[in-house]
Design brief:
The protein is α/β, with parallel strands linked by helices and about 325 residues long. It has helices at about 1-25, 60-65, 95-110, 125-135, 160-165, 170-185, 185-195, 200-215, 215-225, 235-245, 275-285, 305-320; strands spanning about 30-35, 35-45, 50-55, 75-80, 115-120, 140-145, 260-265, 290. It has an 8-stranded mixed beta sheet, with helices on both faces. The longest helix is centred in the first third of the chain and has 26 residues, at about 1-25. The chain is globular. The chain starts with a helix and ends in a 6-residue tail after the last helix.
């Protein structure tokens, strides 16, 4: 009994954190039985045209709520799903980004949805492009935000990114410790996140962080984003697969996208270089390009977050179908 008590005292907080996180994850989503197998999803909103989010990596259906909660209550229904390998969608459903586009099409079939706008964020960019190119009649608009559009590998000079994706992401105790730090000292996590995801200099990072810490909404985004990367066993397979697929992402069918397209990217994105956005804007017929000065990979945390949100809503309203599917 003494051993059990000592274990509980030493590891109890970590065990409770992990158990509660898993419980929340499973309670927050639904499972669809599709032609490609089980797929996890959640729908926010009761009416309006659908906007579907292809999350980045690491992530899952919960990343959409963390980064794109500003879409809620704006006249749209937001469909968020876990790409293969993330949370409860099996990796075997679709490893390549082309396959993932078809898994998403199967999810729409299972839900009885004809058309949707698609928002591809970061590593969600390639499957979003493939879906729009393969299913033009089902895509009423496409948004590529900080999206990968060509070959991508972790930047060897980005030490923080290497530590996160190569080590911490596969270690639940480390992620738990990070969560504890985030709750008690969010500024430390904010500093690390901005430093890893942006090319802003030290003074610019400090000034941005001061602004974030004064904004409860952005502090919550930071906390929710961190939680959307845990626990590791629900994200690792998807992340490892993403990195494999991203390294050979070349020749995306950008020129075959016919849906109205908005490309959004920050000038100081340290994760996905601006060239990815310029490539998409050059190649997709009629694409709009919105470059965010001083914006970095997590635009929801940038000082220009409201500007970006308004631009998304403007674009979606301009192209929303008159009849809701």
């Amino acid at each position: 009994m003494n051993i059990i008590r000592r274990v509980r005292e030493k590891y109890g907080p970590y065990i409770r954190w992990k158990r509660n996180l898993i419980r929340e994850l499973q309670a927050g989503s639904l499972m669809a039985d599709t032609a490609k197998g089980p797929v996890e999803y959640v729908i926010h909103g009761d009416d309006g045209p659908f906007v579907s989010v292809m999350h980045g990596g690491p992530g899952g259906y919960d990343q959409a709520g963390a980064l794109f909660g500003d879409l809620l209550g704006k006249g749209f229904r937001v469909l968020s799903w876990s790409r293969p390998g993330y949370v409860r969608t099996p990796l075997d459903a679709g490893r390549t980004f082309e396959e993932q586009a078809e898994v998403f099409a199967a999810l729409l079939d299972a839900l009885g949805l004809e058309r949707t706008a698609v928002l591809g964020y970061s590593a969600g960019g390639p499957p979003a492009v493939h879906f729009a190119a393969r299913h033009p009649s089902r895509t009423w608009a496409l948004i590529l935000e900080c999206a990968v559009t060509g070959p991508y590998e972790l930047d060897g000079n980005n030490v923080g990114e290497h530590i996160l994706f190569k080590h911490l992401m596969f270690n639940d105790p480390s992620m738990w410790l990070g969560d504890v730090i985030a709750k008690h000292a969010p500024a430390l996590v904010g500093m690390a996140t901005i430093g890893m995801e942006s090319t802003l200099d030290e003074d610019e990072v400090f000034l941005l962080l001061k602004d974030i810490m004064k904004d409860e909404r952005r502090v919550k985004i930071l906390m929710d984003l961190f939680r959307s990367m845990s626990p590791a066993r629900f994200r690792t397979r998807g992340l490892v697969n993403d990195l494999k697929q991203l390294a050979k992402t070349d020749g995306l069918p950008l020129e075959h996208v016919t849906a109205p397209t908005l490309v959004i990217h920050g000038t100081d994105d340290h994760d996905v270089p601006l060239e990815h956005a310029l490539r998409a804007a050059r190649s997709i017929p009629g694409a709009e390009l919105h470059i965010v000065k001083d914006g970095f990979h997590i635009l929801a945390l940038a000082d220009s977050a409201d500007e970006v949100s308004s631009e998304r809503i403007r674009f979606l309203n301009a192209h929303a179908p008159q009849t809701v599917p």
